[in-house]
Write the C-alpha cells for this entry.
Amino acid sequence: MTNIAIYPGSFDPITNGHLDIIKRASKLCDKLIVAVLVNSSKKNLFTFDERIHMIEDAISDLDNVCVKTFSGLLVDYCTENNVNAIIRGLRAVSDFEYELQMAQMNRKLEDNVETIFLTASTKYSFLSSSIVKEIARYKGNIEELVPKKACEYLVEKF
Ligand code: ADP
C-alpha cells in the first residue's frame, strides 16, 4: 500500500514552522500533499495562486511533496485521492482543543483516515502566519521566520 498523507491549511503565508512540519512529515509517508483550503471562512491576505506559488518555491527540493487546493470536506478529498493520513501541527495547548475536535469529527465522518499530530519544533512553536503578517506590516525583520519567496511576497504586500 502506498502511504499518502495530506497536510491541509490556509498557509497565508507558509512559514518556517509549516515547512518544518512538511519536511518531517514527508519522511513518514510515500507522498505528501500540501493542501491549500479553498472554502475557508478566514479572510486571507494572499490569493490562492500567491499562496501556492510560495509553497511550491519552498518545497522545490522535496521529491515526494506536491501542492494542491481543495474545497469541500477534507475527508471526501482523502477518499477520492487515496489519502490515508491527515497531518496537523501542534504548537501549544491552545491548538489542542480545536485540533482534537477536528480530528474526532473527521474520524467520525471517515474512519479509514487517521490524523497524525506532529509537535512544533521548539524554535517555531511561537510562529504563526498571523504573527508574521503583523511583523511584516510594521516592517520588522521576517527573514528567519518564512521561506524566501514568502518573505518577498510579504515585503511587496506591505
Ligand atoms: P489552519 O487555518 O487550518 O489552522 P494554518 O495554515 O494556520 O491553517 O496551519 C496549518 C497547520 O499547521 C495547523 O495544524 C497548525 O496548527 C500548524 N502550524 C501552524 N504553524 C505552525 C508552526 N509554527 N509549527 C508547527 N505547526 C504549525
The radius of gyration is 15 Å.
